Amino acid sequence: MRIAVFSTKPHDQRFLSEADAAGRHRLEFLEARLAPATVPLAAGADAVCAFVNDDLGAPVIAALAKQGVRLIALRSAGYNHVDLDAAEAAGIAVARVPAYSPHAVAEHTVALILTLDRKIHRAYNRVREGNFALDGLMGFDLCGKTVGIVGTGQIGAVVARIMTGFGCAVIAHDLRENPDCLALGVRYVGLDHLLGASDVVTLQCPLTPATHHLIDDDALARMKRGVMLINTSRGAVIDTRAAIRGLKSGVIGSLGLDVYEEEGDLFFEDLSDRIIPDDVFARPLTFPNVVVTGHQAFFTEEALRAIAETTLANATAFERDGKPLHPVHADAVRG
């Protein structure tokens, strides 16, 4: 199968090439992001392989269908950037990577918690400047604190296990209770209760119409003053402007983000020699109690290898049976 791989970075080429060592597929690596203007690059391809910031709206899907593309192979778990109705109408199958390494994202989540708690980012900069003063670096013991996890799929369950190991009381909110979490002693509660009782709130839920701006001004008003808020799920789960207001008022005591709702024009690119025009994104960076990473929570050797293998397994199954291993259908969004 001829596959046009968009938004290719060196690590994508390495792991996809290793996963296709037998040469079953013809992989064409493209640095360009998939968008209306770059659709012609997929001419002659049977499938396109896309990442989280590629444009898979209705116009792009219609153009891909005209070129004979029959499969969209996402190298991600999330699919909120895909117009599934348009894909279904065009007869294009959509496949995703439902799980790769939940440990990668969960461990990054905990890294953000520890960094913000113990002010590691500030201490690092001070020591490099010869400043060994401890003023402003006081943290708190995680042991005994209440951690609220919104979303207890595979990633949330690993976060629960790690935080239980720290001696935290872990509560959770999800539409379905995870037996693995229950076995750890995690207590499931309503969202309002979780927001009001948690010292740390971490978001591990998918982005759906129901979770879009789940954390807004009203949600922040129900949280403990000084709460630590972590998001390693999808950017639009948090209303960024509301979070800024929460930081300014002191409701949010510290904020850790690996995702941002308008990250498409920022993340995965080196913009160090430019002015970032997004004032909303720039504002949180001015706070000393905010740590932002550029959507790197998934970025481990194990996760990238699993993503590549599953992505190509989807393509192989589609080529063989006309159906990928992990399809996504329009009714997945409609619920």
> In CATH terms, what is the architecture of the largest domain?
3-Layer(aba) Sandwich
- Structural Rg: 21 Å
Under CATH, the topology of the largest domain can be stated as Rossmann fold
Shape: globular
Q: What is the CATH superfamily classification of the largest domain?
A: NAD(P)-binding Rossmann-like Domain
Number of domains: 2
Q: Sketch the topology as an H/E string, one letter per element.
A: EHEEHEHEHHEHEHEHEHEHEHEHH
- Total DSSP E strands: 12
Largest sheet: 7 strands, parallel
Low-confidence segments: none
Structure report:
The protein is an alpha/beta fold and 335 residues long. The chain folds into two domains: 2-100 and 301-334, 3-Layer(aba) Sandwich (Rossmann fold); 102-292, Rossmann fold, CATH 3.40.50. It has 13 helices and twelve strands. The protein has helices spanning 10-19, 58-66, 84-90, 102-118, 120-128, 154-165, 179-184, 191-197, 217-221, 240-249, 279-282, 301-321, 331-334, and strands at 2-5, 26-29, 47-50, 71-74, 93-95, 146-150, 169-173, 187-188, 200-203, 227-231, 252-257, 290-292. The strands form two sheets. The protein has a seven-stranded parallel beta sheet with strand order 8-7-6-9-10-11-12, sandwiched between helices. Strands 2-1-3-4-5 form a five-stranded parallel beta sheet, sandwiched between helices. The two termini are 32 Å apart. The mean pLDDT is 95.
